[in-house]
Design brief:
Distance between the termini: 22 Å
Number of helices: 2
Helix content: 10-25%
CATH superfamily: Holliday junction resolvase RusA
CATH topology: 60s Ribosomal Protein L30, Chain: A
CATH architecture: 2-Layer Sandwich
Shape: globular
Number of strands: 4
Strand content: 25-35%
Radius of gyration: 14 Å
């Protein structure tokens, strides 16, 4: 089963290149965004499994959009278990990201995150 979360895109601050200060501390607005993402994931009551797939699709204003892979660090950190919010309850090394692409021309940019349980291989 797929679970979908739509989060606001806050701009380049969510990029892997910009979400931390030079002293390696995460910027407060990014921490708030990640907590909000963890809350959204928790409210979906996604079954606890060992591995997840996550696809990210961006709806952006114009070509000044980010590369989707540059958003994965913040998104995966938000989805893993966080203090006070459970998110998916697993370390982000057990969450496998997929670039779902993007579209342009949106006046309110968002990130659409789709989560589903990793299917076990029957080897």
């Amino acid at each position: 089963m797929e679970y979908k979360i739509t989060m606001p895109y806050l701009g380049g601050i969510l990029s892997d290149n910009n979400f931390k200060y030079l002293n390696k501390a995460t910027k407060p607005i990014v921490n708030m965004w990640k907590r909000s993402l963890a809350q959204e994931a928790e409210q979906l009551h996604i079954p606890q499994v060992e591995e997840y797939q996550v696809s990210v699709y961006g709806k952006f204003i114009d070509e000044r959009r980010p590369d989707i892979p540059n958003l994965f660090k913040v998104i995966l950190d938000g989805l893993k278990k966080r203090t006070g919010f459970n998110g998916l309850g697993v370390d982000d090394k057990h969450i496998h990201p997929r670039d779902g692409g993007c579209s342009l021309g949106w006046s309110n940019p968002v990130i659409e995150i789709t989560i589903w349980e990793e299917e076990e291989s029957n080897a």
